[in-house]
Design a protein that fits this description.
Blueprint lengths: L19 E3 L16 E3 L4 E4 L12 E4 L3 E4 L7 H5 L11 H9 L15
Antiparallel strand pairs: 1-3, 2-3, 4-5
The structure holds iron/sulfur cluster (2 copies).
One iron/sulfur cluster binds next to loops.
């Protein structure tokens, strides 16, 4: 993991979005990896992380205090939306959605690369 990871004092996206994904990503299906007992069924095609399907949202896999110190308890097995939400784009530009979310909890905007990129 990179030395600098701005997600570790943030975590707001894990309490903001409903994290939904193709049902077969869960580990009760062959080849699945997301712990199925931390998910709930949305429809025939989709599941979501428990805790994210109601307001206030908080993913059941999130540990710690948002805006202070957090971690994902299933980081290696997190679902695809969590893997695909970028903190930085390829050119090192911070994701403006991250800055928007971080501002909601009083965190400063992300610094531009050349800081090592996270997630
Ligand atoms: S920095 Fe962005 S991706 Fe990381 S926890 Fe905060 S909002 Fe989510
Ligand atoms: S699975 Fe992990 S990264 Fe994804 S929303 Fe939950 S705590 Fe956040």
């Amino acid at each position: 993991m990179d030395a600098y990871n701005p997600c570790l004092d943030c975590g707001i996206c894990c309490t903001h979005f409903r994290i939904s994904f193709y049902w077969a990503e869960a580990d009760d299906t062959p080849g699945g990896y997301v712990p199925a007992d931390m998910t709930e069924k949305l429809n025939h095609n989709l599941r979501c992380m428990k805790g994210n399907n109601q307001v206030p949202r908080r993913c059941s896999a999130l540990t710690g205090e948002v805006g202070k110190a957090v971690s994902c308890s299933i980081y290696e097995n997190r679902p695809s939306p969590c893997r695909e939400f970028p903190v930085y784009f390829e050119d090192g530009t911070p994701n403006p959605k991250c800055d928007e979310l971080r501002a909601m909890i009083g965190l400063p905007p992300l610094p531009h690369a050349p800081l090592p990129r996270a997630a």
